[in-house]
Design a protein that fits this description.
This protein is an alpha+beta fold. Helix content is 52%, strand content 6%. It has 22 helices and 8 strands. 38% of the residues are buried. The protein binds protoporphyrin IX containing FE. It is a peripheral membrane protein.
């Protein structure tokens, strides 16, 4: 048995070696001899069978070599670890791809190739390389790969995840950007607020403070993510659907709490996306993932149907109405280009809602955990608010320039947690090259944001949490140049369209929470800050405490 195993191992090695490396004729002879060494081991009766096996291997080898991508002159083949047949480098990538791929970038450089299953994936690291690919060669790296799991998101019609043709994606992205800009800047119902976005966020953040106080009175501690996610979801629900939900609404709660599971499957490196036969094996994770997407789609579809039945051209209430309006206008326009279906247009709201609550609630929940882990930073932030905003009114968006330490804290949360460790996977739209390496069309590309944010050539002591790194030399102002080095919203053509809303919401929620509350540990509870890998990395669910700040200094 052991002899047979060794024989098989050598055969594998033979195919594998010749399909992954450049070889001379001498290598070929050496390997052929090595494979022939097996013949006496398996016995004379099997010699003819072994010869047939060897001939088959040679044929497979020749076929694979013929199928190998030809590298254009002047360019090099991508470096990277050797893949194992069928599974590729899945074992080396492991459960924390942001860490393993960062380690590999030290060995292979800022552009290298791994293989997940049968599929080659190019991994980009290093700020210069990422900028070169996503900005200077933006068009060539703007595609999305056609991954199995992406087919279930928004019924395969997602703006962010589907591999739509460039024209369709561009038209939808433009519509989504317009709708977001328009509905976040319209006038608020009260002159107290600069715009409707500020009004939504302030009201939800103030309500969150009441909810946390109530939870403290009722049970003496609370799960921060459970409450934050509903408040954040309400802001985007207000803009997309013109409604908000109670913190005890079972339907919304069960939906928003599923985002962890969603992120785990969609995070870069999900084996079922890269090893085709895994799709046909029973998988609890994929079953759950499909169920989550069904629930999410049904939730949004119900609201969209209600909007269609109450739609009034003269009263556009929210983003859903404005997208329906766009479709209606198009029907009246004889010259309109109908390449994007109504379903795909109204379906944009599904992406905005999903991206709008998961990212910001993850960022805010991490912040509260960091505040508890670094109480001296929490105190310094509160004192800055007390001094520059006071305790008589809630902070506003316009207070931002007077709160440099809060801005620095936010940047350090983005950098240190890098809770979006990779962008959504990209894909090349044509044959291209980067740093002298050839990358064929339709190659899946992972952009390692975590590596850029922890690169020791950019950051001093990258693993230390220190908001001060984003302050000017005199410690008084926010250092914008330093902040621009942090990569969290992606770059270039696929850069996040919710960045302005995301930054505004994160800032205002945090400012209001910090002004009104002090967060603490539950005595005796350990704070585990190890992230759980996914598209957005979450902290482990935990119990925290909070107390209301007094108007006068304690
Ligand atoms: C702190 C908050 C947020 C962070 C850190 C964040 C980060 C990101 C990242 C890294 C990407 C992928 C970029 C790429 O693939 O290269 C992305 C894409 C996207 N984000 Fe955000 N995001 C945030 C908030 C939002 C919000 C509030 C919305 C909408 C209301 C939104 C909507 C989108 C959409 C639609 C895409 C897909 C764009 C495309 O594929 O063309 N995001 N975001």
């Amino acid at each position: 048995m052991r002899h047979m195993q060794a024989h098989l191992d050598r055969c594998y090695h033979f195919i594998f070696y010749f399909t992954t490396e450049r070889h001379s004729g001498r290598d070929l002879i050496k390997y052929f001899k090595m494979a022939l060494m097996n013949l006496p081991v398996v016995g004379p009766v099997l010699v003819s069978e072994s010869l047939v096996a060897m001939a088959t291997l040679c044929l497979v080898y020749l076929l694979l070599r013929l199928m190998r991508t030809k590298i254009p002159e002047g360019l090099q083949r991508l470096p990277g670890p050797k893949p194992i047949p069928i599974i590729g480098n899945v074992l080396e990538v492991g459960r924390n791809p942001h860490l393993s791929l960062t380690a590999m970038s030290v060995r292979y450089g800022p552009v290298f190739q791994i293989q997940i299953g049968m599929r080659p994936v190019v991994v980009l690291s290093g700020s210069n390389t990422v900028r070169q690919a996503l900005i200077k060669q933006g068009e060539e790296f703007a595609g999305r790969p056609d991954l199995y799991s992406f087919h279930f998101i928004n019924d395969g019609k997602s703006l962010a995840f589907s591999s739509d043709q460039a024209g369709v994606w561009r038209a939808r992205r433009k519509l989504a950007l317009c709708a977001l800009r328009c509905f976040s800047t319209i006038e608020a119902s009260s002159s107290e607020y600069s715009c409707v976005l500020e009004e939504h966020i302030t009201k939800e953040a103030e309500y969150l403070v009441t909810q946390l106080s109530t939870a403290m009175e009722a049970s003496g501690s609370f799960d921060p993510f459970r409450h934050i996610v509903v408040s954040v979801a309400n802001v985007i629900c207000g803009m997309c659907f013109g409604r908000r939900y109670s913190h005890d609404d079972e339907e919304l709660l069960s939906l928003v709490n599923l985002s962890d599971e969603f992120g785990r499957v969609v995070g870069s490196g999900n084996p079922a996306d890269f090893i085709p036969f895994l799709r046909f094996l029973p998988s609890c994770t994929m079953k759950k993932f499909m169920a989550i997407n069904d629930r999410f789609n049904n939730f949004v579809q119900k609201i969209v149907t209600e909007h269609y039945s109450t739609y009034d051209k003269n009263n556009i209430r929210d983003i859903t109405d404005s997208l329906i309006d766009h479709c209606e206008d198009r029907k009246l326009d004889e010259n309109s280009n109908d390449q994007v279906s109504d379903e795909k247009i109204v379906g944009i709201v599904n992406d905005l809602f999903g991206a709008g609550f998961d990212t910001i609630s993850t960022a805010l929940s991490w912040s509260v955990v960091y505040l508890v882990a670094y109480p001296e930073v929490q105190e310094k932030l509160h004192q800055e608010l007390r001094k520059n905003v006071g305790m008589d009114r809630s902070p506003r968006i316009s207070d931002k320039p007077n709160l440099p330490f809060l801005e620095a804290f936010i940047m350090e949360i983005f950098r240190h947690s890098s809770f979006l460790p990779f962008t959504i996977p990209h894909c090349t739209t044509k044959d291209t090259s980067l740093n002298g390496f050839f990358i064929p069309k339709d190659t899946c590309v992972f952009v390692n944001q975590w590596q850029v944010n922890h690169d020791p050539t950019t950051w001093k002591e990258p693993s230390t949490f220190s908001p001060e790194r984003f302050l000017d030399a005199d410690g008084m102002g926010f250092n914008k140049l330093e902040a621009e080095k942090v990569l969290v919203f992606g770059l270039g053509k696929r850069r996040c369209i919710g960045e302005t809303i995301g930054r505004t919401e994160f800032f205002l929620f945090l400012a209001i929470l910090l002004q009104k509350m002090r967060f603490h540990k539950v005595p005796g509870h350990l704070l585990d800050m190890t992230p759980e890998y996914g598209l957005t990395m979450k902290h482990k669910r935990c119990q925290l405490r909070a107390s209301l700040r007094k108007r006068e200094q304690d």
